[in-house]
Amino acid sequence: MAKIRLYTPGPTPVPEQVLLDMAQPMDHHRTKQYQDLLAEATNGLKYVLRTQNDVLTFTSSGTGAMEGAIVCCAQPGRKALVVSGGKFGERWGLVCQAFGIEHTILDVEWGRGVEPTMIEQHLKNDPKIGMVIVVHCETSTAAASDIEAIGKIVAKTDALLLIDAISSAGGMPIKTDEWKLDIVVTGSQKALMLPPGLAFAAVSEKAWKVIDANKPKAFYFDYRAYRKAIKKNDAPYTPALTLVRGLHRSLQMIQQEGIENVWKRTETLAKASRAAFVAMGLKIYATNPADSVTAVCVPEGLDEAQLRKTLRSDYGVHLAGGQGELTGKVFRITHMGYIDVVDTLGALGAIEAVLIRMGHKLTPGAGLAAAQKVLVKQ
Amino acid sequence: MAKIRLYTPGPTPVPEQVLLDMAQPMDHHRTKQYQDLLAEATNGLKYVLRTQNDVLTFTSSGTGAMEGAIVCCAQPGRKALVVSGGKFGERWGLVCQAFGIEHTILDVEWGRGVEPTMIEQHLKNDPKIGMVIVVHCETSTAAASDIEAIGKIVAKTDALLLIDAISSAGGMPIKTDEWKLDIVVTGSQKALMLPPGLAFAAVSEKAWKVIDANKPKAFYFDYRAYRKAIKKNDAPYTPALTLVRGLHRSLQMIQQEGIENVWKRTETLAKASRAAFVAMGLKIYATNPADSVTAVCVPEGLDEAQLRKTLRSDYGVHLAGGQGELTGKVFRITHMGYIDVVDTLGALGAIEAVLIRMGHKLTPGAGLAAAQKVLVKQ
């Protein structure tokens, strides 16, 4: 029996009821039925992101919506401050580079969140900074930044704050309006429990003012076209409507559970997992660990690729490896989305078993017991 | 019983077996299984497009892949010749405008294909033209252009030929290599029998040379990143993997039928439908009609929106209306994709019945008989 379970930080498992909703017969998107469905989905996204701002839906990966945000918000004569502490922070710097957007990279040690005061300092020293780009949960290192504190700092200036919340939104607390986040981008294949193919952006009034004055050099990712369309529950270009139908369903599930409960569940699973890995004698890579995903250092001499390969072939447990400079050094396991206690305990047990088989010294059940201690306390 | 059937030129109906393939449990895209599946799908796309060129897969609507083609092929100091005879030709002009790409619009009367000699003349008179953008089937008017003849003309120059084949590829003959088409773009939700969300581009060596020399100001739609990834059966950004799984299945179906047979089926249904509409006393809008979709003029005094509304509510037949200046003046019916004789005769009969009910004078069965005459001849 091959029962594959995804524990990768995107794609994540998709609930069966969502898969079947997407398999319903095709209908057209210029119908009242679809428009009502999109309206409800958009409201669901606002609920998840805790915002009254416009929320736009793109047919693309999260990278596309982030590119759109960066290009649309890049003001002539101003520059971007790009916080980079992993592969995705690096990517937003590359987007600036590709489009000739002047930018400063604020390098953060991999595994750490950015110090909010560092951003404050940059904004003080360089009034040319017109936007600050921060990754909430850096998927490659599983480190989180304090976007609430950063929001307070940037809100005092005329700069915009762009948040890559692709692997955090819906899994970790984000209060877009309260924290004054100007653009929050996320994707479908993470905490929103959908296949990849959709990306979303919540856009503040402060951001719209800049975008409207900018007249950005963009077409497919021109945020203005999506704002105009969403007001009529439409999209400027044919939308990935089966995925939107799935979104409608998965957001219903999130609303039924309650977003605070989803955040709490994710946090609990993350805490239990971290405790388990420490009890197995492993090190958590991030000093500021995110709750949506954990990166775990693989002990010296242990073959990380082999570990993951055996987990998949013998237990159906699909973990993610390391990215970039972390290849072979860490594995990553997700806690966000359609993942519960049973999934988590099962995966932790499988990891323990394979570690033992590969010669790593640990008492069988030590990791599981540590996880259980955290879980029963909740 | 509400049995909705799409006859819109995108989205089109998706076969049940494709819908269910896409509803299989989620797996990861960095697995041998997925890479093999993508490799097979890419080969299937090459088969459909009759090409040995690289074929790239994007998570976006067709518009996104066209934007990428235009931006990647726009050489500094050169300009674009944009053939515009409908809403989509207009759109590619707007893309040039958005990105500040110098361009000439070659205006073609709506409903006509472009005269290939007009393109020849432009290329002779203006050596600055570095790319020619032509819509194969202009979805808004259902008119086709002779891209084989245009291919021969452009191939003699150093200009690139970019074809929007979004609503033609897989439904009408396209021989990318034989006709020397440099970039052929299509989308998933037309003749390929999939939901919207994927776009594809076949790219010639001549185009790659330009793109590589260009170093385009693009990121998400930078064709170079997709070429690099596809060589390893990968994508640069998380792909819409459930749609790719569906693509794999729908391409299998096309290969089983044989692409020449698919073209022939589409052509036959188009011919039968046109004969039927003429027999109903209606006029075909395009003087150079495409075979993937037909635009039909609605008689003076007949409420086009009401016609379509009744067809959907009473017969489950969903036609498309007119776009832009054709709103209220034409309806459109598709012949491409998962559409057969039974679907077509059923829709033609329903249209006849509603026309009669709305006071249009015609002998009941006249349209159906005319269609049948064409069908039995094949």
Can you describe this structure?
Chain A is α/β, with parallel strands linked by helices. Chain A has 2 domains: 5-10 and 259-377, Alpha-Beta Complex (Aspartate Aminotransferase, domain 1), CATH 3.90.1150.10; 16-257, Type I PLP-dependent aspartate aminotransferase-like (Major domain) (Aspartate Aminotransferase, domain 2, 3-Layer(aba) Sandwich). Chain A has helices at residues 16-22, 32-49, 62-73, 87-98, 116-125, 147-155, 205-214, 223-230, 241-257, 259-279, 304-315, 341-357, 366-377, and strands at 5-6, 54-59, 79-84, 103-107, 129-135, 137-138, 143-144, 160-164, 183-187, 198-203, 283-284, 293-297, 317-318, 320-321, 330-334. In chain A, the strands form 4 sheets. Chain A has a 7-stranded mixed sheet, with helices on both faces. In chain A, helix 5 runs parallel beside helix 6 (147-155). The longest helix of chain A has 21 residues, at 259-279. The first copy, chain A, is globular, with a radius of gyration of 21 Å. The relative contact order of chain A is 0.17. At the A-B interface, helix 1, helix 3, helix 4 and helix 9 of A face helix 1, helix 3, helix 4 and helix 9 of B.
